[in-house]
Specification:
The protein is α+β, with helices and mostly antiparallel strands. The chain contains 3 helices and 11 strands.
């Protein structure tokens, strides 16, 4: 017998978006969007699907920020940067489909006995390689912090870093509107001196 529906259940669970992506369950939520575990219909490949919060779908600034993230990710083809698989909109709410990164954020490893100097150097080297690739494509992350750095395992390779969340990225592309001039992007405790200055919108 099927379970009786419960009040407050997310209506997107078990829904199929654009006939391609079936939502399985929620992975997490932030200030601007929610991330779901989803799978490709008829194939079963699991992915992460990020959907803008419904209350922001009519806010042009948030929609532009979401578009920036999609455009930034679409340019990146590097083992240390999360890759985008699809973009679209569901009931006027934009979404991004990304590779599913199994593992945990760097936040959980900092200060643990497992974070030896040798391991720390190896991880930071990968972060720098990913950032170098992004910078080479005219993309500045602007919100790099341990929560946005995932550590996963890749078969035959070992420990691999993935840089996430390019929502505040500055993209060197005159065709794409950048963030509002009144918005200083980033997380205060991780912002560079350039970001905290008078012209913080790098």
């Amino acid at each position: 017998m099927a379970d009786a529906p419960t009040s407050g259940r997310d209506p997107l669970i078990d829904a199929t978006i654009d006939g391609r992506w079936r939502i399985l369950h929620q992975l997490g939520a932030g200030a601007f969007g929610v991330v779901y575990l989803a799978e490709r219909a008829n194939l079963g490949r699991q992915v992460a699907l990020k959907l803008l919060h419904e209350e922001y779908s009519s806010n042009n600034e948030y929609v532009r920020r979401f578009a920036r993230e999609a455009r930034a990710l679409s340019r990146l083809q590097h083992v240390n940067c999360v890759s985008v698989l699809d973009v679209g909109a569901h009931n006027d709410r934009p979404y991004i489909v990304m590779e599913l990164v199994a593992g945990g954020p760097l936040t959980e490893e900092i200060g643990t006995p497992a974070m030896t100097p040798v391991r720390a150097v190896a991880l930071i080297r990968q972060v720098l390689l990913g950032l170098g690739h992004a910078h080479g494509h005219g993309i500045v992350h602007r919100d790099l912090k341990p929560d946005n750095i995932m550590i996963t395992e890749l078969a035959g390779v070992g420990e691999v870093v993935k840089i996430l969340d390019f929502g505040f990225a500055h993209i060197n592309d005159s065709r794409l509107s950048q963030s509002n001039a009144n918005l200083v992007p980033g997380t205060p405790s991780y912002m560079s001196p350039e970001q905290t200055g008078a012209d913080g919108a790098i």
